[in-house]
Structure formats: structure tokens, C-alpha cells
Amino acid sequence: MGIQGMELCAMAVVVLLFIAVLKQFGILEPISMEDSSDGELELSTVRHQPEGLDQLQAQTKFTKKELQSLYRGFKNECPTGLVDEDTFKLIYAQFFPQGDATTYAHFLFNAFDADGNGAIHFEDFVVGLSILLRGTVHEKLKWAFNLYDINKDGYITKEEMLAIMKSIYDMMGRHTYPILREDAPAEHVERFFQKMDRNQDGVVTIEEFLETCQKDENIMSSMQLFENVI
Amino acid sequence: MAAGLATWLPFARAAAVGWLPLAQQPLPPAPGVKASRGDEVLVVNVSGRRFETWKNTLDRYPDTLLGSSEKEFFYDADSGEYFFDRDPDMFRHVLNFYRTGRLHCPRQECIQAFDEELAFYGLVPELVGDCCLEEYRDRKKENAERLAEDEEAEQAGDGPALPAGSSLRQRLWRAFENPHTSTSALVFYYVTGFFIAVSVIANVVETIPCRGSARRSSREQPCGERFPQAFFCMDTACVLIFTGEYLLRLFAAPSRCRFLRSVMSLIDVVAILPYYIGLLVPKNDDVSGAFVTLRVFRVFRIFKFSRHSQGLRILGYTLKSCASELGFLLFSLTMAIIIFATVMFYAEKGTNKTNFTSIPAAFWYTIVTMTTLGYGDMVPSTIAGKIFGSICSLSGVLVIALPVPVIVSNFSRIYHQNQRADKRRAQQKVRLARIRLAKSGTTNAFLQYKQNGGLEDSGSGEEQALCVRNRSAFEQQHHHLLHCLEKTTCHEFTDELTFSEALGAVSPGGRTSRSTSVSSQPVGPGSLLSSCCPRRAKRRAIRLANSTASVSRGSMQELDMLAGLRRSHAPQSRSSLNAKPHDSLDLNCDSRDFVAAIISIPTPPANTPDESQPSSPGGGGRAGSTLRNSSLGTPCLFPETVKISSL
């Protein structure tokens, strides 16, 4: 009964073609329940406007002109007014082409994103910069501590430090001199903890951190390094 | 995105504070602070249209004109703005590049103008943004192709001027490639064309049944069998001509291997080979079957026409360039044929007395149906077969319709390109003539000026012709320059007419005509340089080498005294050369002798082997010149020059 089989096939093909033609004419639309309407109404990306110039001036230590210049550059790069994490990673990675800066950028992003909403606004940006460039040594150290403390619980554990260290070493890439050893980050963490952890309880608190740093000549002198960036 | 980097760099540096507590070594000091004046607005005035932008914007790209200190050259202190005398419309795009980091390509502007602007402002064309890059590249490529075609046409246009002294082989090859160069080539071209036609027609007529006039044979014979000798003679004649042509081409070809591999020569070989094979093969019945097959190849003679027809060549070239589309067409057709043949076979299997005996048998039906031929020798009889058959024919229309427009558009593009090339070649000659005219205009102005006594040092201002006085500043300086040159080289400019008269009976060769078009220097084309060194008019070919003491050979390439006219190859002995000048060594300013010199760039070294030593200016072997008197008044001579140039 091969013939019957072929006839069945022929009928099936005819029916399929018929349905295809009908679909073209839009008669069969109720059957196809696709949510095509949502595609058109996709909202444009959220736009953000910063606070007024005066308020920002009050919050930060920048002059009006500096704020204006900063905002112009920021707005040029991000017309929507905010930077999301991926863009941030992309931008930061361009400064370190040899290595992988994404992890460190992630930590940085969290450090800058004060309200934790997943995007850096201009206020976050400028407040962070103000601390880093115009803040006191104390404030800068606090900012650094905040950066290292990934879960923001007030303690830097060895795992957190290791993650930070690894991300920093990642930025170096593979082609270094001397060759980067696998345990270099861990060693560095060990040294850090030996220096910082006074009571040897395995975590570094903010007080220990501040105390140790203020006693270290190198660190104190290098805090002045980036003051003239803007 | 350099713009982005520059904006974010302060941020990245600030974020480096995070490394400070971890640093094990003291960090390096920060780079020197340049007094940041704070951002200011710059005004850039481009041909009157003012553009204002922040200084920071321009500083984003420090390796361009606007971003570096180079723009200070254009600073106008009075108005406090940067003034550029360029196209303001194009500047818009340049400035937008600084602002957005993307360089867009204007669609309505000439791509070369755009390129020039980019070059001026120091932007590399690679900066063109992705959105416009494709179009930019296409237009640039198109432009480049067109210019290359122009150049080619120009060079090819010079082709007919054969270099003197080319061998028989080269001339023969040129005659074959461009039949329009000489009448004999044209005749040959038409004769071969005629014989190709005759051969093809004879092949065709051979098979027509001729009715025997006197005898009534049982069956009608084709003409070929009725008049075998006539056709054989005609065939022989054609093959002889073709063989001769092929051998001549083979002889004349500059690269025989390449010629042997070329398509046209293969066609030639295939056209004449069957005849020779037929001669060699004995006429017995076993082989004559194959012999008959060989005669089929005689029809390939018709492809020899492609040498005569450009359209045919274009068609062949199109098919070659559309090879991928044709391949795709073939592949998709094959796929469809196999599918439908299988389906039809199984659909019609049950029917008795069906034509669809096997799948390959169904191939024929499928092909005929898909190409919508529909011979009707095989038709399906079952319903399923009919349904599938109709689907087959519908899909055939689609599958064939798809690649065909691509091929058609390719053909159209190539055809139009060719037409454009032809038209341009025709216009090129007119253009070149006009350019030559313009170039000789400058020299003519100078000569006119001299003739009108402009060089007279006498202060007879009123007697000086009015035209002398009414020269523009540019012309004055230009003429002064030419005048200095004359003085330096101790020779004078004169025009082509006088020069060619001077050459007189000497065969012009290719040099004279060529030199007229090459010069673009202030030295006029084809000028005749005079020597203030007195030489009696002698119709002897003496070639002067480096008659100017002060000028080294290298810099005077264009003024090199080359003899285009070497009458005698016999080297003149030094003594004999020295003898003559001493006779006539009178510093007589009245009699001026001219040394015919041809200015050509570059110096063909082959012709001047002995001149290649730039040694002492007195060194030099033969010199070629024709000398004649003239009445042009030139100031007096420098004795040193005379001595030197007199070898």
C-alpha cells in the first residue's frame, strides 16, 4: 500500500501549504499566540538626571568649573546618564590591555556604586572621585577598605583579600617579568595580613587597617600621588 | 575609542588609590603637572564659518592637526581664532569626529575631496566609523579602479607609438593584439575572420541534404558526401590559414608558455587538431566512428570569433566571474532534481505502463518540469504524482529565478564598465592634447617674452613691448627663473618648431614626440637648448656630456643631452673632437650655435652608457648635436664653460 502512503503524504503537503498561505493573509492570527505586541513597546533605556550643580558642589570638594568639565565628559560618554557594569568593565579594560581587568572592575564598580542599584550615576562618580582626589588620607583609606571589603560587613577576610589580590594580578596579564607564579597573590595576601592583622584573628578590621597604614611611611607618602589628576 | 579613554583616564588613575595600601614597593611619583588652565572654548574659523568647541574636545586626539600644537600655525592673534582656508562643509565632519569619536563619510561629496581633507587634518582614513566604512571603501575602490583604468588607457594609448628598434617579434605581436595599428594587421584580421566564417558555414552546409540533380538516389545525400573534394579543399585551406596564424602567434608571443596556456590558443589548437588527426587516421570503419566524433570539434572554430568580438569576450568574462552563482544554481537544481525525482518515482510506482521506470528516468521528467519546458513525453497519472509534479514545477520557477538576476547584474556592470572604458579612451586623446597645449603655453609665453626683447638689459622702457610689461607677478618671477636657468646652463630655450627644423633630415624616432609630453618642469617640453659655446655649424653627431660645469648630472637629469639622433656610432676620438672647437674658439656672441638636446625624464641608461660617469665635467665620450646658427641675441659666454664643454 505504498500508493496510499504517497497519497497521504501528498494530502499532508497540500494541507501544510494551505495553512502557510492562510497565515500570509493573516486569517490564522488568532491561532498563533505570539506576544508580538511587546516588541514594539520596548521602553527606551532609563535616563537619569543628576542633582543640581549646587548640591553636588556641596557634597564634593570640586569647584563648579571642575564639575562642569567632569559632567561634560561623563555625559559625552554615557548620554543616558548612568554606567552599567558591563560598560564599566569595558571601559576599565581598555586601560589594561595586557591583562584581564574585569574582576577588579567588578570590585571597583561595587565600590563606586554607593546605593547598589547596579548602575553608577554621575553623583556616585563624582562623589567617589572627590574622596579619592580631594579627600583626606583618612577618607581615602576608608575608601580603600571599603573596596577590599567585598561583602561590606566591616571585616576583610583572607578570602576577600585573596580575591582582590588575584584580580589585581590578573590585570598584569601573563607576560610579566619575573614570571608570575601561581602563589604570588596568596603570598602577597599573607604578607598583607601579617602586617595588618594585629590580633591575628584572621580578619582585618577598619581600625587595624587605619592604624597600620598610618604607621607605614610608604603608604602615607603615596597617598598624595593622585591628587593632581584633575 | 580615544575620546572615551581620555575622559575616563582621570577616573582610572583615581581608582588606583585602591592599590596603595597593597603596594610592596614605593610607587613612582606622578608625572609633572602642566598648569591646567581649565577648559576653554576655542574658535575655529573655517572659510568664514565659525566653529566653537572646548579645547578638551580637540585635545582628545593629540596626533592630529587640531589636537596638537600644529594648529598654532593657523592662529590669528588679531581675531583670537584659528583660521583655516578649507571647505567648511567637510570640516563639520572632522569636528564631529572629535566630539563623538566616530568619523562619518558624507554621501554627497567626492570621495577624493574627503580624503584630501582628512589628510590635511591629520586623520587616517581608517578612522571612518563602522556605519560609513563599507560605503567609503566601496566608493574609494571604485574611484581607484577608474583612475587605474585611465592610466592604463593612457599607457595603452601610447602603444601605437612603437619604440624604435623593436624586433620583428614585438611588432608582430603588437599587430596581432591591436589590429588597428597597421593596415596589414587589419587585413590579416579581416581575412582570418572571413575564413572562420567560411569554415563554420562549410561545416553547417555539409550536412544539408542535397538533391541530386541528375540521379535519383534511394536516399538524399548530405552535401558533404556529394561534393567531398570541394569541402575537403575548403577545409584544408581554412586549416592551413589557421595553422599559419597559430604558428605566427606562437612565434610572436612574448611569453610562449603563457600563450600556450591561454584560452584562445587552446581554442585554436582544438579547432585545427581534428583535421590533422583525420589525416593521420586511416579511413577504416572501426576508427571512422571516432573520426566522425572529432569533426564535432570543428565547430569550436566559432569561438575564434571571440578575438573579433568584444561582446563575446565580455560574456565569457561574466560567466567566469559569476562562477559562484552558477555553481550555487547548479547545486540547488541538482538537489531539487534528486528530491523530486525520488518522490515522483515512488508516487508513480504503482501505475502500470508508467514512464517512471527508475529514479534516473524520473530525472528527465523533473528537469523538464522544473525548467517549465514540459515536453509531455512523461506525465504523472496518479493524483499524488500530479500534486507533487505541480509542486515541482512551482519550485523550479523559484529556484531558477533566484541566481539569475545576480548574473544579469554582473554582466550589466561589466558591460557598462567596458563601454565607459572605451568612451574614456576616446576622450583621453582629446584631454591629453589639451593638456599638452596648456603645458607648452608656459614655455611659449617665455619665448614670446624673449622675442619681444624682454631680456634686453637696456633701460629702454618705452621700447619694450607692452606685453612685456603686463606680466603678472607670477609670470615675472617664473620667467626670471627660466632666465637664470639659461644663464646657468649656458643654453637657451627655444620652441619645438625651431628644434625640429634643426633636426631636419634625421629620423625623428620616438623620442621627439615622447619628450613633448613628459616635461612638467619649468623647462619647457622638447626645448632646444642652445650652447653659448661657439661651434661652427656642423652636421655631425656630437653628443655633449654635461656641458654645465656647475650642475651635477644627477640634478640635471631632465636637461641631459641625449642624442635622439645618433647618426654615427663611430666614436669620435678625443683629439678629433678637441681639434674642432679650437678652430672656432672665438667668443663671438653673434653666432650662436645650438646644440640639439632632448629633454627626457628619465634618462634611459641604455643609450648613454658612457655618460653615466658624472666625473669631471670635461669627461664624456661622444656627443650628439646638430648645430646651426641662430640670430637670437644672448649675452656673452663664460669662457670656462666653453673650455669644459669642448671636452
From TrEMBL, chain A:
Query: What Gene Ontology cellular component terms go with this record?
Result: nucleus; voltage-gated potassium channel complex
Extract the InterPro entries matched here: EF-hand-dom_pair (IPR011992), EF_Hand_1_Ca_BS (IPR018247), EF_hand_dom (IPR002048), Recoverin (IPR028846)
Going by the entry's taxonomy, the superkingdom of the source organism is recorded as Eukaryota
Q: Where is the EF-hand domain?
A: 100-135, 136-171, 184-219
Q: Which residues does UniProt assign to the signal peptide?
A: 1-28
What Pfam families does this protein map onto? EF-hand_7, EF-hand_8
Name its cellular compartments: Cell membrane
The Gene Ontology biological process terms listed for this entry are:
regulation of potassium ion transmembrane transport
Keywords for the protein's UniProt record, in alphabetical order: Calcium, Cell membrane, Ion channel, Ion transport, Membrane, Metal-binding, Potassium, Potassium channel, Potassium transport, Repeat, Signal, Transport, Voltage-gated channel
Establish whether keyword Lipoprotein is in the entry.
no
In alphabetical order, the GO MF annotations are: calcium ion binding; DNA-binding transcription repressor activity, RNA polymerase II-specific; potassium channel activity; potassium channel regulator activity; RNA polymerase II cis-regulatory region sequence-specific DNA binding
Gene3D superfamilies named in the record: EF-hand
- Hey, which family's this protein in? Belongs to the recoverin family.
Q: What is this protein called?
A: KCNIP3 isoform 7
UniProtKB/TrEMBL annotation, chain B:
Q: Which InterPro entries match?
A: BTB/POZ_dom (IPR000210), Ion_trans_dom (IPR005821), K_chnl_volt-dep_Kv (IPR003968), K_chnl_volt-dep_Kv4 (IPR003975), K_chnl_volt-dep_Kv4.1 (IPR004054), K_chnl_volt-dep_Kv4_C (IPR024587), Shal-type_N (IPR021645), SKP1/BTB/POZ_sf (IPR011333)
Instruction: Print the keywords alphabetically.
Output: Ion channel, Ion transport, Membrane, Potassium, Potassium channel, Potassium transport, Transmembrane, Transmembrane helix, Transport, Voltage-gated channel
Q: Which residues cross the membrane?
A: 187-205, 259-281, 326-347, 359-375, 387-408
Sequence ranges of Low complexity compositional bias: 506-524
Subcellular location(s) of the protein: Membrane
GO CC term, one of those recorded: voltage-gated potassium channel complex
**Annotated stretches, region: Disordered:** 144-163, 506-531, 601-634
Query: Which GO biological process entries does UniProt record here?
Result: action potential; protein homooligomerization
Query: Where does the UniProt entry say this protein principally localizes?
Result: membrane
Which Pfam families does the annotation name? BTB_2, DUF3399, Ion_trans, Shal-type
- Topological category with respect to the lipid bilayer: Multi-pass membrane protein
Carries keyword RNA-binding?
Answer: no
Record's superkingdom?
Eukaryota
A molecular-function term among this protein's GO annotations: A-type (transient outward) potassium channel activity
User: Which segments constitute the BTB domain?
Assistant: 40-139
| Oligomeric form and interacting partners | Component of heteromultimeric potassium channels. Identified in potassium channel complexes containing KCND1, KCND2, KCND3, KCNIP1, KCNIP2, KCNIP3, KCNIP4, DPP6 and DPP10.
- Please give the family membership noted in the entry: Belongs to the potassium channel family. D (Shal) (TC 1.A.1.2) subfamily. Kv4.1/KCND1 sub-subfamily.
Protein name, UniProt field: A-type voltage-gated potassium channel KCND1
Q: Which organism is it from?
A: Pongo abelii (Sumatran orangutan)
The uppermost taxa in this organism's lineage are: Eukaryota, Metazoa, Chordata, Craniata, Vertebrata
